[in-house]
Amino acid sequence: MNDDDFDALTREHFARPEIAAQMTADLLAARRAAERPEPPPVTTMPMPEFLRTRIAGQIARYRCPRGCGWFHDEPTDPGPLGLIVAIEPGQDSIGEMISLNAEARSLAYQARVEAAIDEHYAESH
Ligand SMILES: [Zn+2]
Questions:
Q1: pLDDT tens track of the chain, all 125 residues?
Q2: How far is CA 120 from the centre of its chain?
Q3: What is the distance in A from the centroid of ligand 1 to the CA of 111?
Q4: Cys-Cys with 64: which of 15, 70, 72, 92 at CB 3.0–4.6 Å?
Q5: Is 42 within the bounds of a domain?
Q6: Do 59 and 74 form a contact (C-beta atoms < 8 A)?
Q7: Number of structural domains, the chain?
């Protein structure tokens, strides 16, 4: 945008107060939207049922959303925490590593369930 363009925009801005008001409202809405946390990612995971089994302990059962009877089970106990490597000693970096580990496990869990559902859909629906 050169100076002439800017001058023209400024003249229009002051000559049409309703446009200026709309631009201000759009700017404020964009700023508020940027401050909100991102919505969670879209997932194909249905709500699970929680069941207790003798062999696997407590499991989360994800049933086919189309109600065909197929299901996928995931243990709710993720097992021992994986190797946590702190880059620098100190509580902040350890806390950060634990958070990253937990997030990675959560994403892996979701990916397993979604992959199982995708595979089932490809085979059966
Ligand atoms: Zn199905």
A1: 778 877 876 777 667 777 777 777 888 888 888 887 776 667 788 999 999 988 878 999 999 989 999 999 998 877 666 655 655 656 567 777 778 888 888 889 999 999 999 999 999 99
A2: 23
A3: 18
A4: 70
A5: no
A6: yes
A7: 2
| Ligand 1 center to 118 CA (angstroms) | 10
- Does residue 30 share a domain with residue 55? no
Q: How far away, in angstroms, is 21 Cα from ligand 1 center?
A: 52
Global confidence as pTM: 0.58
Q: What span, in angstroms and rounded, lies between the C-alpha atoms of 51 and 33?
A: 40
Tell me the CA–centroid distance for residue 24 and ligand 1, in Å. 50
Is residue 57 domain-shared with residue 108, that is, in the same domain?
Answer: yes
Whole-angstrom distance, CA of residue 12 vs CA of residue 20: 9
Q: Are 73 and 102 in the same domain?
A: yes
Q: How many Å lie between the centroid of ligand 1 and the Cα of residue 30?
A: 41
Question: Domain of 31?
Answer: 3-35
Q: Give the distance (Å) from ligand 1 centre to CA of residue 86.
A: 43
| Structure tokens that stand for 85 in this block | 């490597």
